[in-house]
Amino acid sequence: MPTLEFKGKQYIYSHHHSVPFRELLVDSKKSLPASGNKPSLDDNLIIHGDNLHALKALMPHYAGKIKCIYIDPPYNTGNEGWCYNDNVNSPLMKQWLDKNANPVDKEDMQRHDKWLCMMYPRLKLLHELLADDGVIFVSIDDNEVHNLRAAMDDIFGEENFYSQVIIRANSRGQTYNQIAKTHEYVLLYAKTSEIDFGELNKDEENNDLNFSDKLGKYNVRELRNRNPKFGKHNRPNLFYPIFVNTNSADKDGFFPVSLTDSTNFLKVEPFNSVGKESCWRWGEDKSIKNIALDTQASNLVAKRKQDGGYLICEKYRKTTFKPKSIWDDNKFLTESGTVELNAMGIKEFQFPKPIGLIKQCIQLCTNDDDIILDSFAGSGTTAHAVLELNREDGGNRKFILVEMEDYADTTTAERVRRVINGVPTAKDDKLKAGLGGSFTFCELGKEISIEKIITGESLPDYGALARAFIYYVET
Ligand SMILES: C[S@@+](CC[C@H](N)C(=O)[O-])C[C@H]1O[C@@H](n2cnc3c(N)ncnc32)[C@H](O)[C@@H]1O
């Protein structure tokens, strides 16, 4: 099997093991606890710091417990200003820390190596944090999608790849190259290959239940099995006549059918368009159970075709649907993310992801009490999506965000404060009133290093040492 090779791989392959362990230190002033409570590490968390260290700090509490990870790392476009700054013990990578080599720009011949060296240990830690039934979603574009996929195959296993979803992220195209780029991707991997993804609720835009009868909303699909592999020759029990009462169409133009009443009814059998015998999808028993004389209470009806013949149809009433691998709704456009963030009164952050995109990821793989982690948090869209979903379905999902820039307080946490407390100028009534919730803001403490403990150079307090010890023993 081909393997992923890149400059520096041998040094960072097990770098996640040597990242020093640090404590999470609660900053009460920047936290927003539920009324009457003190900030606690068991609450939603916003962590200010490099995610390599933050993820390590989360290990004692959260290894194997995160149900959904969504990350939106630097795409390595060459103009985002991201820097390689991991302290890996190799001359090559010490060179990469040099100011002249940072930020990583388009001319840097080692930019893909640097990006992989930055991502690899973080993905390893994310893999360890993911629950056995957990799923990771990674936003990315053409700059690194091929490298990211190879790295994820390495770390999560090729067999745990689920999808490379295409997102229509732009309406007009970002760069007017020969071909305007209007899409990006979300890669989906899971911890195991036996994940049951949830279905999505049909909303107004994608709702195809256009008719309604006494049993509720419905639409129809042909009862004939359109797969040419199946027919009377190998499914003789599925080839039987259904009789149509052609005299009494209901308000929507559907006719009653029967399996037994042939007087004055028209006989219809399953033939394909060129007159070849095919078969129904249901056996006779199932058809009988689904027929009512009143078409408004029946699940099997007939529809008149343009050529004067009749189509036997099943009514379906499903209110959910399985997601497809192309997400092209307007709610996934990057420009929607900007509009949503501006509506919160926050204008400084560029290209936040739209709430709808992250909400859809979370909906696919979480239940009420699950934990969602975003270790490249930016403006905090993931927390916004979690709080909105909880509000909509009464769930109690929890979020953990990590952001290394100083705007972790002024943008990331500030957005979450506004979502919780309400935005007086918001058009949406729920947002105006505030969605409720709480969080604890943390900084990273000093590293707990065995060498420094042994030499007495720095001694952690008893609690920190005990938690680090339990983590190492347990894992
Ligand atoms: C593309 S933005 C994410 C935007 C986010 N999805 C949103 O909707 O606002 C990437 C973010 O990751 C942060 N970041 C990059 N490297 C990081 C690291 N090593 N640790 C923590 N945060 C990091 C950047 O500062 C930036 O805010």
What fold name stands as the CATH topology of the largest domain?
Answer: Rossmann fold
Q: Which range does the strand content fall in?
A: 15-25%
Largest sheet: spatial strand order: 1-20-2-19-18-3-4-6-5-17
Q: Kindly give the count of domains.
A: 2
**Which small molecules are bound?**
S-adenosylmethionine
CATH class of the largest domain: Alpha Beta
Shape: elongated
Uncertain stretches: none
Helix content bin = 25-40%
Mean pLDDT, as a whole number?
92
Count of helical segments? 14
Q: N-to-C terminal Cα separation, in Å?
A: 30 Å
Structural class: alpha/beta
How large, in whole angstroms, is the Cα Rg? 28 Å
Q: Describe the sheet with the most strands.
A: 10 strands, mixed
Key features of this structure:
ten-stranded mixed beta sheet, alpha/beta, 2 domains, 475 residues, Rossmann fold, 14 helices, five-stranded antiparallel beta sheet, single chain, binds S-adenosylmethionine
Task: Please tell me about this protein's structure.
- The protein is an alpha/beta fold.
- The protein folds into two domains: 21-203 and 324-474, 3-Layer(aba) Sandwich (Rossmann fold), CATH 3.40.50; 211-318, no CATH class.
- It is 29% helix and 23% strand.
- The chain starts with 8 loop residues before the first helix and ends with a helix.
- 37% of the residues are buried.
- S-adenosylmethionine is lined by residues 50-51, 72, 74, 352-353, 376, 378-379, 381, 402-405.
